[in-house]
Specification:
Length: 85
């Protein structure tokens, strides 16, 4: 590997948004989403849905995240602006 390692994360099915703010979400453990700021490499938020996730994605320029659990319950969660700074 060439270059300097800036960030190392563990989890499954990462999704990212490169709009005004670069963020990345991944399922760190079953039902737990972790959201990271790509410019600082810092974890900004952790969301626990209590059940494994089937799908998740950022919406509205990463101001919200939509998550669907394996039992087909959907969640639309506002991400506080502090989580995205």
């Amino acid at each position: 590997m060439e270059g300097k390692l800036v960030m190392r994360l563990f989890g499954t099915r990462p999704t990212s948004s490169f709009g005004p703010v670069g963020v990345l979400a991944l399922e760190a453990e079953k039902g737990v989403l972790e959201i990271y700021d790509l410019s600082t490499s810092m974890k900004r938020q952790e969301l626990n849905f209590g059940r494994p996730l089937a799908y998740y994605t950022f919406v509205q320029a990463a101001t919200k995240i939509f998550a669907l659990t394996n039992d087909q319950t959907g969640y639309l969660v506002d991400l506080p602006s502090t989580a995205l700074k």
